[in-house]
Design goal:
mainly alpha, 8 helices, 71% helix
Length: 167
């Protein structure tokens, strides 16, 4: 793949996500984006490319959160919730796509679940892949069911305290 192909694929995926913002649970309409059918053939291929993007975003956020974390499980929760909040359309498209094309996304989802379980230190390297995937699936279910904490609002008094010199 040339750099031109790379950038073209990236732009096509961005256009697919922009179109999906209206209804992220609907099937991706590759025919609405010029060149999408030529690069991705069908919806499962486009979903795999989008999942790769999701994996990069989630994995990067997990690694960042784990750098200063005392609790690995809490760091994974924070990273997962922040990634879903920041990339909600991508997450919703992949979630709906996994229900429509489970066979296409199953290996990618299994890898993601193992990564979550390993990062949260719920499984180890010696753990069988099937067990790690099962633990990761349970963790993912808990993450989906747990609402993200409300962002803390900074009051004017707190801002003034920050500006005031300490003695």
């Amino acid at each position: 793949m040339s750099w031109g192909d790379f950038y073209r694929r990236r732009d096509i995926l961005a256009a697919l996500l922009r179109n999906a913002e209206r209804d992220p649970h609907a099937p991706l309409r590759l025919e609405d984006v010029p060149g999408a059918v030529a690069y991705f053939r069908d919806e499962p291929s486009a979903l795999l490319a989008l999942h790769y993007r999701w994996s990069l975003l989630l994995g990067g956020r997990v690694r960042t959160e784990l750098c200063d974390a005392d609790d690995a499980l809490d760091a994974v929760r924070t990273a997962w919730q922040a990634t879903v909040a920041e990339h909600g359309t991508l997450y919703a498209v992949l979630d709906a796509g996994a229900r429509r094309h489970p066979e296409a996304l199953a290996p990618a989802l299994e890898n993601e679940r193992r990564m979550l379980a390993d990062a949260a230190q719920l499984t180890g390297p010696a753990e069988p892949a099937v067990d790690a995937s099962r633990v990761g699936a349970a963790l993912e279910s808990l993450l989906r069911a747990t609402p993200a904490p409300a962002p803390r609002r900074c009051t004017a008094a707190a801002l003034w305290r920050r500006l005031a010199p300490s003695t």
